[in-house]
Amino acid sequence: MPFLHGFRRIVLEYQPLVDELLGLLATPDTEGQSSLESPACLDSDRSQLSAVRRVLQREVHSPFYQEGVSYALLKVTELGLVPAAEILLEFGADLSFEDPVTYYTPLHMAVLRNQPDVVELLVRHGADINRRDRIHESSPLDLASEEPERLPCLRRLLRLGADVNAADKNGKTALLHALASSDSGQIHNTDSIRLLLEGGADVRAATKDGDTVFTYVIYLLGEMAYSYSQEEAEDIERFCFRVTQLLLAHGANPSECPASESLTHFCLKSFKDYFPLLRFLLESGAAYNCSLHGPSCWSGFHIAFEHLCWHLSRFDDETYSSDLIQKGQTLLELMMASSQTIQLPSNFEVNTSSCRFHGEKVQTLFCSLKQLERSPQALKHLCRVFIRQRLKPWPVDDKIKALPLPDRLKWYLLIDHAAAGHKDL
């Protein structure tokens, strides 16, 4: 049993040396107990460090000296005792020594305890900055990316040259670790994700199971309505929006295949719930069809009409229906205004007979869409597409409002029907 064997070696063989060294670095706390964790721990006190040197010189030829001094390095690393760690390294502490239980190296432990100065010391002395532990296959950078509190270590590791795109055997990179570790209320790794992206993290990274950078955003958004309070849901929505901004700014494609990993496809299926995020995606240049296979794979227009008809056939609330049709209309115009030529699936038809409300409006929207596909593009449409393209990147609203144009034309360019009904301009 390797764990028991390792434990026995600590207790019966080199633990006395470790205890003596750590005891020299500790000072009594208020209750007279020796404490390494207390603020009074004088790791830089010369007399303490001199005493540590004397013990190491005395024990240098003793049995299990190497294991003892190396395990002591693990302990002082956890506590951030830089001068003590320097002495232990001077006296032969092994940088690759693994904790007998966790199998973490001193560098892993320094990151877990958020000790950036110790991280730098260990790397400067030759610690493998990209080494993975034997249990979880986590690199120091992976561990640093998983908690916002470890941001100083993440920053230090990147500065020291850690491989930002190194992946474990499952293909998981530090960026995917940071995204996967983000949850409802405790961990929002926005700053860690930003640092990794600025450090060159590949937004196209994917695990062997097919998880991408958007998998975790989709998961959080999908769970938002079912698992969290209103306040938590709003926090998650803000987090997902900010992370999506960062990912798109660094070249991520939210409209890639498969549809299950496409953030655009996910938002289209429930556009009423995720309308601000969907609007951002489209105004940032995201394709409204599958970016790899086109509308034959999945089409934003088909999903939008399907969503409209499904909800309008099942809910008899007039206020809800009016809001839905308004957002649907805006969404269709956003997609139409994103390109000069409309791309629809072949033989695309819409059945509005089941709609309890606004069936005629849905049919009108569909007919105008088909007409736009079949006919030469109107000048106003071409102008809107051209101007909106020129005003990117997102957001374009303030830029449109600043244009020296009549309000009626600004309204047409804005594509915002929240305050007014649609009129053909």
Walk me through what this model shows.
A hairpin with a 3-residue loop joins β3 and β4. The chain contains 20 helices and four strands. The chain is elongated and about 90 Å long. The model is unreliable at 27-34, 38-44 and 419-425 (pLDDT under 50). The longest helix is centred in the first third of the chain and has 24 residues, at 2-25. α10 (190-198) packs parallel to α12. The protein has helices at 2-25, 46-59, 65-79, 82-90, 106-112, 116-124, 140-145, 151-159, 174-181, 190-198, 213-227, 230-249, 263-269, 275-283, 300-312, 318-336, 359-374, 379-390, 397-401, 407-414, and strands at 27-28, 34-35, 289-290, 294-299. It is mainly alpha-helical. It folds into three domains: 1-128, Ankyrin repeat-containing domain (Serine Threonine Protein Phosphatase 5, Tetratricopeptide repeat, Alpha Horseshoe); 130-247, Ankyrin repeat-containing domain (Serine Threonine Protein Phosphatase 5, Tetratricopeptide repeat); 259-425, no CATH class. The strands form two sheets. A two-stranded antiparallel ribbon has the order 1-2. A two-stranded antiparallel sheet has the order 3-4. Pathway: Protein modification; protein ubiquitination. Keywords: ANK repeat. This is SOCS box domain-containing protein. It holds the Pfam family Ank_4. ANK repeats lie at residues 102-134, 136-169, 170-208.
Outline of the structure:
The chain is an all-alpha fold and 425 residues long. The chain has helices at residues 2-25, 46-59, 65-79, 82-90, 106-112, 116-124, 140-145, 151-159, 174-181, 190-198, 213-227, 230-249, 263-269, 275-283, 300-312, 318-336, 359-374, 379-390, 397-401, 407-414, and strands spanning 27-28, 34-35, 289-290, 294-299. Helix content is 55%, strand content 3%.
